[in-house]
Amino acid sequence: MQLSEDQNNNKASLSRFESMLKTNSVFFFDADEFEEIIHYYIESGKIALAKKATKLGLEQHPSSINLKLFQVEMLVFENQLNQAEELLNNLSLLEKSNEEIFIQKANIYSRKHNHKKAILYLKQALDITSDPPDVLSLIGMEYLFLEDYENAKWYFMACLEEEEEDISALYNVIYCFEYLNQNQEAIDYLNDYLNKNPYNEVAWHQVGKQYYQLKEFKKALAAFDFAIISDDTFIGAYLEKGKVLEKLKRYTEAIESYTVTLGLDDPTSFALLRIGRCYEKLGSSELALQFYLKCVEEDGLLDKGWIAITDFYIKNKNYKKALYYINKAINIDAENVLYWKRYATINHRLNLFEEAEYGYRKALELGNYELQTWLSRCDILIHLGEFNAAIKNCFQAIDFYPDSAEIEFRLAGLFYINGDIQKTRFYLKNALKNNFEYSFILEELFPSVYKNKKILQIIEQHKKPSI
């Protein structure tokens, strides 16, 4: 491809500048050349070089407003906001109609979390700018920071009216619609947009996602098909189409859609996982397992992949294999509560009670406060004869579930075993009042307690007469 004259000049300026740095020579550049060099480094994320170019540029052109504005940008980047603001105030005395001064002032106030003041400066910039879309987008972003989604939406829409191809603004408009739960309004807006831009794959993709949220799967499918017609390499559309086909129970077609993505780019763990799920739904267990294993090979940090393999073996009652894979998962991420819950369940089914108790304890420590986790741990502690630990577990659980008859029946049985009849009566009566139907817990976990005449008497007293 032939480079334009400007591109050639920019490339030559950059080469000369980097040669100057390497040789410690001093070359002269005009102000425009410095601006292009600094802009290139900022865009490339090479801030240290941008800062150096700004410093050298100002040494050669101390009165250049644009280079001073780059200096402000460097100061803001380094969070030297007061110094940046002072420099801007001096510049504004020299140039009262330079939009970049207002934009940088807005940037400073945005960094200070004063988004309302940032908006005021951006609106001043909007009055004088020759590039409204950029400023409209910046105002929209400030309203997003304020969580004012209606105003943010308006400014992003205004940006799109000025520049229809601004995909970032389009995504932001839809984000606002979604946050406001305005799915149908989003669809109406996107359809208007598509009337003017009928082959915009992103807009079709977003229409499909809105229909998916509304559970209108056939309309979603049509939208994703149009996205693919507009761009047959659009991976996101194939993935979303696959999800819709799964919802419609058209698993073979879903596999085809996901498989297309594997040929367009490096395989994604998401696509491999979904293909595995589809094969499992179709009853092709071996193929399902193959794709689950490929999924974790592709991304060992994706917990859904490890969980899919583990659940696959649990369903097939191959608990030793399930334990093998959940142990591998835990070795990668020992803070994942979903892994510990499965670790506990598998060990419980293998009658490895101490390991199961440890698993439930870890799940609780990591914040899994589901009632069933507390109850399962309690039952194992009872089985192991750890009655005091079981009581402590129940007291911790009752803080979260104060009216749970399931916990109170267990406490009644545990206090009876510990010889505290007063607390036995208290928790038994509470449990019977809260839910008489759970009295079978006492019979199952504490058969000797249940057979006690005084206990049976209390149970009978709370029994409701049958109609």
In summary, what is this structure?
The protein has helices spanning 5-23, 31-43, 47-60, 65-77, 81-94, 99-111, 115-128, 132-145, 149-162, 167-179, 183-196, 201-213, 217-230, 235-247, 251-264, 269-281, 285-298, 303-315, 319-332, 337-349, 353-365, 371-383, 387-400, 405-417, 421-434, 440-445, 447-450, 453-461.
Task: Characterise the protein shown here.
By secondary structure, this protein is mostly helical. The chain contains 28 helices and no strands. The chain has helices at residues 5-23, 31-43, 47-60, 65-77, 81-94, 99-111, 115-128, 132-145, 149-162, 167-179, 183-196, 201-213, 217-230, 235-247, 251-264, 269-281, 285-298, 303-315, 319-332, 337-349, 353-365, 371-383, 387-400, 405-417, 421-434, 440-445, 447-450, 453-461. The longest helix is centred in the N-terminal third of the chain and has 19 residues, at 5-23. Mean pLDDT is 88; it is low at 1-5.
